[in-house]
Amino acid sequence: MCKRTQTMRSSPRGVALLLVLGMIMAITILALGFIARCDTELAAGQNMAVRMQMDQLATSGLEHARGLLLNPQEVPSVYWTGEVRQQLDADSTDFYDVAIVRDDSDPSDFCTYEISSTAYRERNGRRTGESRLEATLRLDPAVVLWTGQATTLTPDLTVYGDVYCNGTLTNHGMIHGDVFAAALGGTGSKTGRLDTQALSLNWPAVTVEAFTSCYTTNTVPAGLLSGQTYGPYDPPHVLYCSGDLILGDHVTIHNMLIVQGNLRILGDNVTLAAPDNLPALYVTGDLIVGDLATVQIEGLAVVDGRVLLGAGVTDANVRGGLFVKGDIAEITSADVSGNGNYGSVHGNAAWQPSGGQIGGALQFDGTDDYVQTSRSVTALQLSGDCTLAVWMNAGGSQVTWAGILSKCNPNGSMYHWGLQFNNGSPREIVARPADGWWWSSPWATGIQVADVTGGWHHVAVVREGSTMKSYLDGVLHKTESSVSWFPGWGLSHLNIGANRTTEYRYTGLLDDIRIYSRAISEAEVASLAAGQGTNPAGLLGHWRFDETGDDHPDMTIEADPLRAAIVIGDGAGAQHWSPAAGAFFRSVRRPQP
Predict the structure, then answer these.
(1) What would the CATH number be for the domain defined by 339-543?
(2) Which terminus, N or C, of the chain has the lesser number of Cβ atoms within 10 Å?
(3) What is each CA distance from 231 to 73, 234, 238, 252, 315, in whole angstroms?
(4) Is pTM, for the whole model, over 0.70?
């Protein structure tokens, strides 16, 4: 029996259906892949946008730090190390943190800072899209020393920061920074450049009223201050002195110190530390640092007059800024009376360490040499009986009105008292009274130029009531009664070796100059002429000229713009000032994860 075998045949319609189903499946798979890829690309694009936004925000954080370092007065000092959770838009969820660390790898450099800025977006308490940048910022220019007149920096003076001089700067020291001056000379060195263009930094407009009217003010009397500590206070105080002030041993002041007069720092262990946003020191007259003084000034020091530094200073430091309207000069002739009337040598007066009548002496060439003390409205004042005494070895030729001693007003237009040669022939020494007394005229001592040449001679002029006396080599030379000769109070400096204007200068040697506010006796004059001393009562000034000229003040001035930044005044009219005139990023980098 034969079996029939049936063969299955595909229907054309079934094949078509399978093909359609396959195509649909392929399209579906492709579509799903495309959608997935689009979602990934969209998410990546969104992340990229967030990252770019965070990068921009982190850059804003760096600029925030730059502004904070240039204007530290705007926030308390606790924020000088940075701030957290800062926002450009208070309604956003974007924040940045800024950290500021001073680079202390160089212990004398306070102008370089390391900054990190981290920007992030917060979602449900979590950070997303975080971006971090790091940078090195340099405050520059950062002026640490400003002088309003031509100035000479001595060999042992070191400056860390930029220097501005309104005139020619003669540098024999070391400047770690740039120099802004009309010209630069001297044998010293600098690490930066010389810039003769104008500096975009204004003088700090510090006044007495700007601070005494805004802060609790404590007063100290003029005279000697020693063994005292003031402050710190919160809020800060101002310590004010009307008149000349002398700082002796162990004085610490955490206030702003204002001296409406001259400030003499003569003691050991003196510290002046500025409160936040205030200068450490403001002096309307001169700042004088004596030979034995050790002083630390932390903050900004502003001096309307000059700065005079004793040649024997071994430890003086300013960390912040020293701004001086006058010049900085070396004290080369010490006042051993104890009254701090130090003098600075002008010109090329030559020291004669063993060429004096008593120890050393100073030689004046009659061309440009003289000694000038600091300006003072109280020092070296004569108003009645007085004595002027000096050892002289004069040159045989003296110019008209060649000055020996000349006490005058600040601009040198008026005498207060003096000792000088006249305009006669032969020249004769005369005692000058105060200008303005029409009945008072120079008194002729009877001592002519030939009497004081060819060797050392002692000259003394004594006023006792209305009687004037002159002594030559300890012997009474001339006396005259009923003389109308009146000294003035003396509102400024004393010139030694020149007249009041420093125009007419003495030629020869001078030694052991003494000024008394009393009429010393004939026996005392003889004692001086014998090279001995006197009763020190009334001794206002005493210059031995025993210096050698080889010593120089050892002083360091370090820029610290954050310590020196101040606010002048208060309220809407307050002025913010900083010695940092600019800042730049040395590098900006993204740290490796």
Answers:
(1) 2.60.120.200
(2) N
(3) 21, 9, 10, 8, 24
(4) yes
